[in-house]
Amino acid sequence: MTSEITLFVNPTAGRGRGAHAAQPAASALRSAGFSVRTVLGQDADDALRRAREAVEGGTGALIAVGGDGMVSLALQAVAGTPTPLGVVAVGTGNDFARTLGLPVRDPAGAGTLAAEALKGGRIADVDLGRVGEKWFGTVLASGFDSRVNDRGNRMRWPSGRLKYDLAMVAELASFKPVPYRITLDDGDAHEVEATLVAVGNGTSYGGGMRICAGARTDDGLFDVTVVGDCSRTTLIKVFPQVYRGTHLGHPKVTVHRAAKVELAARGITGYADGEPLGALPLTAECVRGAVKVLGARDFQA
User: Which domain holds residue 22?
Assistant: First the structure.
C-alpha cells in the first residue's frame, strides 16, 4: 500500500453534503502528509469498479464520503482485503458510523481521525454480514421494517429520522404479520408469525433506530431481533422504543444470536444497509473481522 488515499465520494449524499464534505476531509488528510485522489463514478456500478481498481492498485485506504449507501458500496470493494476503510458520514442515516463511534456530519473531524489512525491510531477489525456476494455492515431488515424502508427510500421529503417515522405510519394501514421460517446455524429452526425479523451485525438502521441494540461488531455473531404477531396498537406503542433500544424487553420481542441465519417468508423483500437484496428466502453469514475500519471505537458498548 502507498501513502495515496482514495476518497470515494457520493456528491448527492445528504442533499449535496457529500460534495461539500470531500474538501475538508481531503484537506485534513493532506495536512497530515497524505496524497489524496477522488473517485466519483458515473453511476453505482462504475463507482464500484473504480473503487475496486484503487484497492487492487494498493491505495493506502478507501474513505467513503456520503451515507450508508456509499459505505455499503465501499464495503464491496474492501471487504476481505487488507485495505482499511474510512468513513466521512454525511448522509441521511449514518448508522454504520454511529455503530462504530465515528464522527457524524463532521467531515474535517472524520478526515483527521482517519489520518491519525493511518499514522498509528486505532484500526479495528470489524465483522460484516454477507448474503451471497453482497456484504453489509449494519442490519438486514425484513417484514414491516423493509416495507417502511422501501417507502422511506421513495420519499424525497422530509429527511432523516422523520422520513422513516412517516413511512411507518403509512405502512401501518396495510400492516399484517406474516409466517416466517427462521433457521439458525444450520439446524435451529423457528416457525413464527412475525411483524419483522432484523438480522443485526450493527445496532441500528433508519437513522438511529436501535432495532438490534445489543449487537456487537467484534463477536462473529448476528443479533436476530424477532418482533412477533403484534396488533397495530401494540406496534404503535412499541416501535418508538426502538430509538432507545428498550423494545427488546417487550414480551412480543425475541432475540437470537447466530453466525448464520436463513430467513424464509412469502412476499417479503430483504434490505441490508438500506439497499435491496431481493425476495426471501435469503441466507446471511457473519464474517468475523472482515474489514479494517479507521478510527472505529466504542463499538463494543
Answer: 4-121
CATH of the domain at 43: 3.40.50.10330
Taking residue 231's Cβ as centre, other Cβ atoms within 10 Å add up to 12
Same domain? 40 vs 109: yes
Cell 432475540 belongs to residue: 255
pLDDT by residue (tens digit) across 71-130?
999 999 999 999 999 999 998 889 999 999 999 999 999 999 999 999 998 999 999 999
The pLDDT confidence band at residue 160, using thresholds 50, 70 and 90, is low
Residue 274 zone, left/alpha/beta (φ > 0; ψ -120 to 50; rest) = left
Continuous segment of H or E residues that includes residue 53: helix 44-56
pLDDT at 17 over 70: no
- Taking residue 185's Cβ as centre, other Cβ atoms within 10 Å add up to 14
pTM: 0.91
CATH of the domain at 262: 2.60.200.40
CA distance 14 to 183: 37
Neighbours of 107 (CB within 10 A): 23
